[in-house]
From TrEMBL:
InterPro entries in UniProt: Leu-bd, Peripla_BP_I
Family annotation (Pfam families): Peripla_BP_6 (PF13458)
Signal peptide: 1-27
Gene3D superfamilies: 3.40.50.2300
Protein name (Swiss-Prot/TrEMBL): ABC transporter substrate-binding protein
Residue span, Leucine-binding protein domain: 36-382
Length: 408
């Protein structure tokens, strides 16, 4: 019996359909095999931004390894492909493209620098790949919410300003609050919620100075702050401008409280050196987003795990780096979402699991929580009094009240 070309084509299509019907649901998904789930992990591992990501990646790696040793996820082991993004937008986008197009990862877990992460939004949405950040705030990629992107596991940059104002009002009893931020989108995000938070309290006002992230001389903005005579000064800048401001404040005889956002405290020892010593930190507070100090018993398991996995590194000065614990909650979220997606995971199932998600990691100041309208994981922060040598935990967590409102 002879077949026409049309009949042959129809037969081939039928056979192919039967073959696909017999395949596991996850088999057609990139990065999934019967025994593995491939994840793209990336962050700055070198360069000037290394402190933001090096030990964060180490923390994520050790958690994924722990899961593998415990049997994996529904019998599949996690396979990592790691890339260095150097805190640079071009490098991060290139890394993401490589991970998706060449390494064929199932999902992305990475990013420690917000501006770099935001640059990847367009590609991620076009590629339709789930992207869970590491410790980047990434507000520009989170608002308005994208189906594929989740982040702010450390804290949303929007929430940074609101939480700081709440701390200044509730703990420091400030009414007139000095506020220095960056004159870019990053600074605008935290200022939006700082202003919102101030309006929640009668008689509270902000006196704002916005500075360029590359500023070299902070004399002018600090003289304006001093002239405004606020009760407390909040700094939401990066580490270098923050050190210049704190040093200048000390030179000008400033003795009122200064509170520094978590984004300016990657290396406390370096901060002390950059401000000229502990004398500049006599009335100084630091925002943090973990559940407690490294000495806190509830954080012991985190640091014990780090010492177990990286004994040589842990023995070196400066390790683990301040941001190390931040790598755990995103990895824990990835694992839980994969578990929730079931034994035959697809990208769509993982994304559906993340739409209504809450997980108390025990690591951060508040649980990871996502809704369909908000993909920023954390809104609360803790605060430490720091004198250049010793840290004292202030009781309680301080939450930002701002919530994203979709445009009608």
């Amino acid at each position: 019996m002879k077949f026409s070309s049309v009949k042959k084509a129809a037969l081939c299509m039928a056979v192919a359909s039967l073959g696909l019907a017999g395949m596991p649901a996850g088999a057609a998904e990139p990065g999934i095999t019967d025994s593995t789930i491939r994840i793209g992990l990336f962050s700055p591992l070198s360069g000037s931004g290394m402190a933001y990501g090096f030990d964060v990646v180490n923390a994520a790696k050790m958690y994924y390894d722990k899961v593998n040793k415990e049997g994996g996820i529904h019998g599949r082991k996690i396979e990592l492909v790691v890339e260095d993004t150097r805190c640079n937008a071009n490098d991060l986008v290139a890394a993401v493209k490589k991970l998706v197009e060449q390494d064929h990862v199932f999902l992305l877990n990475g990013g420690s620098c917000s501006a770099a992460v935001v640059a990847a939004r367009e590609y991620v949405e076009r590629a339709k790949v789930p992207f869970l950040m590491l410790n980047a705030s990434g507000d520009g990629a989170l608002y308005p919410p994208s189906k594929y992107i989740y982040g702010a596991f450390s804290i949303s940059q929007y929430a940074v300003g609101g939480s700081m104002v709440e701390f200044a009002v509730q703990h420091l009893k400030g009414k007139k609050i000095g506020y220095i931020n960056h004159d870019d989108a990053y600074g605008g995000w935290n200022l939006t919620t700082a202003e919102f938070q101030a309006k929640q309290h009668d008689g509270v006002s902000l006196s704002v100075q916005s500075v360029n992230p590359a500023i070299n001389d902070v004399t002018a903005p600090m003289l304006k702050v001093r002239a405004a005579n606020p009760d407390v000064l909040l700094l939401t800048t990066y580490a270098r401008p923050a050190a210049l401001i704190i040093k200048k404040a000390h030179e000008l005889g400033w003795n009122k409280p200064i509170v520094l956002a978590v984004t300016g405290t990657a290396d406390l020892a370096q901060l002390v050196e950059n401000v000229g010593g502990p004398a500049a930190l006599k009335n100084f507070y630091i925002q943090d987003v973990v559940a407690g100090l490294p000495s806190d018993p509830k954080m012991k398991w985190v640091y014990d795990m780090y010492k177990e996995y990286y004994p040589d590194l842990a023995a070196k000065p400066g390790h683990p780096q301040s941001y190390m614990p931040y790598g755990l909650p995103p990895a824990m979220t990835v694992v839980q979402a994969l578990k929730d997606a079931g034994p035959e995971p697809t990208r769509e199932k993982v994304l559906a699991a993340l739409q209504h998600f809450k997980l108390d990691t025990g690591v951060m100041a508040s649980p990871v929580e996502f809704t369909p309208d908000d993909h920023a994981a954390q809104k609360s922060a803790i605060y430490l009094k720091f004198d250049g040598q010793h840290k004292e935990l202030i009781s309680g967590a301080f939450k930002s009240a701002w919530t994203y409102q979709p445009k009608q």
